[in-house]
Amino acid sequence: METATGPSLDPIAKRVVTRENLSTLAAFCDQKATAVSFGFGCVTTPDSAHREEVIATKRLVQEVIASSAPESAPPARLAKDLEEIVAVAATIRLHPSRLRLVFACGEQDVWQEFDLPSTKRLSFLRVGRRFDLAPLMLALQSVAPYCVTILESGKARAFIVRGTEIQEVSSRLVIEEQSFQADDPRVGWSRHISKGLVEHEKAYFKNLSHQLLQLMSEQQATGLVIGCHEDLWGEVEPQFVHLAKSMMGRFHLPHFDAEPAEVLRLATPISTEAQRTRITAVLCEINEAPSRGAFGVKDVLEALLSGRVQKLVLGRPPEQTIAECKACGHMMAVAGHSCTSCGHAGVWYIAAEEGLIRQALLTDAEILMVEADTATGFSGAAALLRY
User: Fold this and answer.
1) Which residue spans within the chain are E strands per DSSP?
2) Cα 361 to Cα 137: distance, rounded to the nearest angstrom
3) For residue range 19-54, what is the model confidence (pLDDT) as tens digits?
4) Which of 72, 96, 178, 262 qualifies as a cystine partner to 154, CB 3.0-4.6 A?
5) Is beta strand 366-369 parallel, antiparallel or unpaired with respect to 309-314?
6) Domain 289-385 falls in which CATH fold?
7) Which superfamily does 19-132 belong to?
8) Are strands 381-385 and 347-351 parallel, antiparallel or unpaired?
């Protein structure tokens, strides 16, 4: 864990959340309950005159202090963390339409700060023994990188998209655009040129497919969205056979010189629908193979504790909690008189989704977060088992 040296400025805040970051946050515990989880994101530029992000954060701080220490001031290190959270909020307007997340605990010299593309408005501040990771996991799912390529006869452009952020990376495609002499006076040459052009174009797109595969691997992209004219796709599709499993969908390309913002606008609905489809497919797989599935908080937690979960599908289990042993941290879906692991009598109660997320991160299970409009009728917990 990183040593706390005060709030970092925007250029220092991490723009990538690593597996190591997640595991460290999931394992963290502060018995004094001074671990701070903060998030603020907006999808529009804040009003510079009203400083809404600072006002909102100060209000959150006041609410936390009032609920956790209504009759006394908070501990000095917690108070300092809360002051630094307000300072972070003051820098948000320097880079609007971003999501700033902070996980801090002055008692243990911890300060982890992340700066991610913002896809939805978000504002929260919580203090407890553990970090609140559900908002972080939702954010990471919404900004998972994917690749977009737009095609025209004999040329291509490529982009990497993370939520509302798009970056053109066409220079990484080490491939030459095709060119032919348009006219030639020699008899019969036009037919030769036409045939040569078709073969050259096939070779171009086949080579491009390998370049895109390499790019997606380097960027850890979750899929590929393609933009092109409908008549061109008939020629391209056979050459993109290596990309079939990665394809999320395609859109009609109005013109090859489209601005990145326009490419993002056209690609976003396809990516969103692909994510919904993937979650639905996993839920169907769980339903169709009961021997490899677990349903409900109790069964899913038991499967996680035994290390059997491959994919966790998680909504917001309504008002469900998990008991956590005060002595050893063992989690139980049904609280008894004592811990089933160490026998200790005392337990804490935590939100079910937080307990399941933490255990999934510690056992390297994939987490798929379900929002209200993603999977109709699902709001709880389910898991696809490894065996």
Assistant:
1) 35-41, 98-105, 110-117, 122-128, 146-152, 155-162, 165-168, 224-228, 247-252, 293-295, 309-314, 321-325, 331-332, 347-351, 366-369, 381-385
2) 10
3) 999 999 999 999 999 999 999 887 665 555 556 778
4) 178
5) parallel
6) 60s Ribosomal Protein L30; Chain: A; (3.30.1330)
7) eRF1 domain 1 (3.30.960.10)
8) unpaired
Q: How confident is the model at residue 197 (pLDDT cuts 50, 70, 90)?
A: confident
pLDDT at 46: 53
Q: How confident is the model at residue 108 (pLDDT cuts 50, 70, 90)?
A: very high
DSSP secondary structure letters along 202-270 = HHHHHHHHHHHHHHHHHHT-S-EEEEE-HHHHHHHGGGGGGGGGGEEEEEE-S-TT--HHHHHHHHHHH
Q: Which long-range contacts (CB under 8 A, 24 or more apart) does 66-74 make?
A: 68/33, 68/127, 74/34
Residue with structure tokens 């040129």?
Answer: 193
3-state SS track over 201-219? HHHHHHHHHHHHHHHHHHH
